[in-house]
């Protein structure tokens, strides 16, 4: 890995454009049309959690390289101190999500299976925290967030369905919990998928790398596609993933854990992104959340 002795000077002299100043406080630049640089300063972070996520990404790129794992971006500079993180990596093209045929999907699920086959990073906590458990105030917070979303659309969505999820989500997580853990990306969606000059899929943005069940990445991928109006059935996704996976995880287990992952993700997070959205966009997330909840009630609630 090349060391850029004066990182800021190199950016100033080679910057093509400043792409964005991230909501978390990270600065991202395009350099000479061939590199992407990230400059993360702890003093500019919105929260300690944001800093920790970028530090996790820096640790990941320091431990795993594109030479061994060709779906990773080529990183030329990765430097971390207690106060800043510097990254320079190769620039790639985005994958066109609206040209999503089976050939592209097969590439995506092949790469995802390879990610799950990576060793779990040493810097991640080794402790098994067990099943997800939400405190009462957390549940009330998520219920309130979802109520704000659905009341924007009158009586179209049933608040009683939402309350039922809040009443049962801890029991569902306890009953459906599995201790199986593999290396997971944690933010696997099309905005984080790129393609190199040879058409190979490159996966970027590893701030949320974690040790978890493979279903989380698959479920999140489908959920984000659905929010963009692109529907892929869970059955098709699981079958395609299993075609490439070498892990000892059966189809039915992945399917059940995907329902659990989607329920948790939808209930906890999606209300933050759906305020002011069209009824069609809300319905796409809502209907899938309720469908997965009903399935999990039938197999988890005794």
Task: Explain what this protein looks like in three dimensions.
The chain has 302 residues and is an alpha+beta fold. It folds into two domains: 85 residues, Phosphorylase Kinase, domain 1 (2-Layer Sandwich); 199 residues, Aminoglycoside 3'-phosphotransferase, Chain: A, domain 2, CATH 3.90.1200.10. Helix content is 46%, strand content 15%. The protein contains nine helices and ten strands. The strands form three sheets. Strands 1-2-3-5-4 form a five-stranded antiparallel β-sheet. Strands 6-8-9 form a three-stranded antiparallel β-sheet, covered by helices on one side. Strands 7-10 form a two-stranded antiparallel sheet. A hairpin with a 3-residue loop joins strand 4 and strand 5. Helix 5 crosses helix 8. The longest helix has 22 residues. It is globular, with a radius of gyration of 20 Å. The chain starts with 6 loop residues before the first helix and ends with a helix. The model has no long low-confidence stretch (mean pLDDT 92).
